[in-house]
Write a structure and sequence with these properties.
Layout: H1 3-23, E1 26-27, E2 31-32, H2 40-65, H3 73-86, H4 88-96
Antiparallel strand pairs: 1-2
Helix pairs in contact: 1-2, 1-4
Length: about 100
């Protein structure tokens, strides 16, 4: 896979992972929870775990492309902020839009 394609795959994985906690009431989209709807604290914890999972996909692609570059705290601050920005559509849909209950 080319580097350009791997970057797009990582961005797509991050977009899906960032919105997954907000578009369903299951833990990681798989495990049903006893509480319905899922509390915001659980959604935020899922967001943190999925951030590292998406980062792991990026790390996998980087290791296949060559040497892994060392990352400082700045890298994690920027990618964490980007991940939160990617989660904005799901957050908006879940908490800022009115939904019909029928």
């Amino acid at each position: 896979m080319s580097q350009t394609a791997s970057v797009w795959v990582v961005l797509l994985v991050a977009l899906v992972a960032a919105n997954l906690p907000f578009f369903n009431d299951r833990l990681f989209g798989v495990v049903p929870l006893a509480t319905r709807p899922k509390p915001l604290s659980v959604r935020l914890a899922e967001l943190v775990v999925l951030y590292f999972a998406a980062g792991g996909v990026g790390l996998l692609f980087e290791s296949r492309a060559g040497q892994i570059a060392p990352q400082g705290w700045e890298f994690y601050a920027v990618t964490g902020a980007l991940f939160i920005v990617l989660a904005f559509p799901g957050f908006t849909w879940r908490y800022l839009m009115k939904h019909r209950h029928g």
